[in-house]
Structures are given as structure tokens and as C-alpha cells.
Amino acid sequence: MSAHVWQGPGTHDKRSPCPALNALANYGYLKIISIKPLYFLLDLVAEKISQRVNLQECEHDASLTRKDFYFGDNHTVNPELVDLLLKQNIDGKIKEESLSKLHWIRLNNSKEVNPTLLYNFQQKFLSAGESSLLLNFIGANTNLEIEIEKLEVFLKHERFPEGWRKPNKVVGIWPIINSLCLFLKRYDQLEKEQKK
Ligand code: HEM
Predict the structure, then answer these.
(1) What is the DSSP letter of 193?
(2) Fewer CB within 10 Å, N- or C-terminus of the chain?
(3) Residue of the nearest CA to atom 21 in ligand 1?
């Protein structure tokens, strides 16, 4: 990352709901990241590989660190939600259990306060996928665990934390799918426990 210096968004810059894409934009790896062009660009790529995916539909309620659409700004990070996530740490680290727990807290809260909550398998799947990406990229060199101090920097400031290094090995699709499935399983477990 040495040639690219972190610079937060300017007053006219917009950011996406994805912390990773925002971090890359903050280092100048992604030049255009105002929301519409970004989705347009990504839609175009998706179309090229014959998988018509509307990325605007990827934005969903009950996300980890963004408020629901019903409450207004659903793409800027909400520091209080990051703090709530960090509180779920186990021995100072955020692991699969911590992320699942926060997802569950967020979902229950949205059910209570958001009359327009949209949450079905698609949103559940996307949530699991995002948490999987987080652990597999940011926690790649640390056994799929992330120290809370590092995660706070990544999520709140959308920058790569001091001492963090990009994954030593290429992150393959299978570990990502494997973690995603573990998240889905854990969500079901939490649901079952709640119904008891
Ligand atoms: C081209 C690649 C990517 C695209 C198009 C993308 C797109 C998105 C979108 C649209 C969301 C918003 C979902 C929501 O409403 O909550 C999101 C969230 C997220 N993305 Fe990405 N993403 C990409 C790569 C990554 C990578 C590599 C990571 C690994 C760190 C990552 C981590 C996350 C996380 C943790 C969230 C959830 C944020 C939250 O719930 O607060 N993404 N991404």
C-alpha cells in the first residue's frame, strides 16, 4: 500500500456502503466511487460475465455498521454500531461468533423499530457473505480473527490499520464460501435459541 497514501473523502466525494471499497477509494485505488457510477460500473462488469446482478439490491437492512434505509443514510458508517460490534469481542478479538451475535442483535432491533424492514434469504445470505469477506480478508493472516483496535480503524476510518498486512496467500473462493455457510448456520442456531 506504500505508493498510495490514505486520504479521506473530500466534501464532494461520496462513499459506498462497503468499507473495503471505501478504504480502497481512500487510498486512491478506486478513483470513482460516487454511488451511482460505482454501481453502474459494477453492474456493467456483472453483466459482462453474464450474471445480471443489480448491486443496488445488495444494500440491505440490518447491516452491521450502517443504519437501515428507513432511517435515512444507509451507506455511511455509524460509529455507534461499530462500537456495538466491538463490544461483542472475545478476548479482544472479533471472530465469527462476535459477528453473528451482532447480526442477530441488529436484526432483532430492526424488527422492533423499522416498519419497512426487508429481510429474507437474500439479505441473510448477503450479511453472511459480508462477514465472511471481512474475516477472510482483514483476518486472513490472523486465523480469521481481528483485533478490536484494528477493526475499529478499518470500519470507522476506512483505512488499513497500522501493522496490518494484506493476506499472505491468495484468498480463494472456497474459504469464503465455507465461512459464509458457517455464518448461515450460526444465524439459524441463534434463531432456534431465541425461540426456546
Ligand atoms: C468488488 C467487491 C465488492 C463489492 C461490489 C462489495 C459491495 C458491498 C455492498 C453493496 C455492501 C453493502 C451491503 C449493506 O447494505 O450492508 C457491502 C458491505 C460490506 N462489504 Fe463489501 N463489497 C466488495 C468487497 C468486499 C471485500 C473484499 C470485503 C472485505 C473486507 C468487504 C467487506 C464488506 C463488509 C464487512 C460489509 C458490511 C458492512 C456493514 O454491514 O456494515 N467487501 N459490500
Answers:
(1) H
(2) C
(3) 18
For the chain, strand residue ranges (E) read 93-94, 146-147
Q: What is the DSSP string of 55-77?
A: GGGG--SS-SSS--GGGS--SS-
Task: Provide the β-strand partners of residue 94.
Answer: 146
Pairwise CA distance, residues 115 & 26, whole Å? 34
Is the Cβ–Cβ distance between 33 and 26 less than 8 Å? Answer: no
Mean pLDDT by 10 residues, the chain (196 residues): 78 85 89 56 56 60 96 93 98 98 98 96 96 98 98 97 95 97 98 90
**Ligand 1 center from residue 20 Cα (angstroms):** 6
Sign of CA dihedral 147, 139, 59, 111: negative
Q: Is 98's C-beta closer than 6 angstroms to any atom of ligand 1?
A: no
The Cβ of residue 92 has, within 10 Å, a number of other Cβ atoms equal to 10
Q: What is the pLDDT of residues 112-123, one digit of tens each?
A: 999 999 999 999
Q: What are phi and psi of 93, to 5 degrees?
A: -125, 150
